[in-house]
UniProtKB/TrEMBL annotation:
This is YetF C-terminal domain-containing protein. It comes from Peribacillus deserti. Belongs to the UPF0702 family. The keyword Signal does not apply. It holds the Pfam family DUF421.
Amino acid sequence: MDFFHGQPTLTAMEWILRAVVSFSFLMIIAKVLGQRAISQLRLLDFVIALVIGNIIAHPLSDEELGLEGSIITTIVLVLLYLLGIYSILKWPWFRRLINVAPITIVQNGNIIYEGLKKARITIDILLEELREKKVADVQKVALATFEADGRISVFLDPKYEPVTPALMQMKTEGFDMPRTIIMEGIINSIELERNHKNEDWLASELERLYQTEVKNVLLATLDQYNKLKVFLYK
């Protein structure tokens, strides 16, 4: 266990053992802290992001520290991370251990207090999350769950869902992504050609519709009906 204590030098194996022990220790600490503490990162992602930055930073800021130990440790940690990802995909029991199941915190308009305690969040946090999703009344929520990445998923009772064309059995047109033909005063010639247009047409349309020039355009898009939409610098 000499690798546990400070020493003038460490062998490659001792660096590897240090990395394995540190990674396992941080996994346990992050698990104890709970998902809310590590925000919107999953457990493995949080641990790897936390340690690698610190490992690389120390040799860069201290001329007395060599890079060998940091490089070995980083390689071992990356391998442990990849092994963890593989294990999550391979073994369901390991997946359940690392990625906790969603916790129900609201069901049929009722707040599940036991779920709040398990997720380690307060009523204030729940109400804040609902407000961010533009839900003012808890009783309108059919189901709210605390997810493994720290987010709260909210499903409204169907009678409070916004009316959509599908519900009204209305016929709609297919989705069309507008094409960007000007960005920050620069013409996208390739996109113009794809739409069978040229720079002369674009210049005349800008003058006719907006009384402006290309250099004054922050963004201009063209839809499937060749309708030009322009956003000017302001």
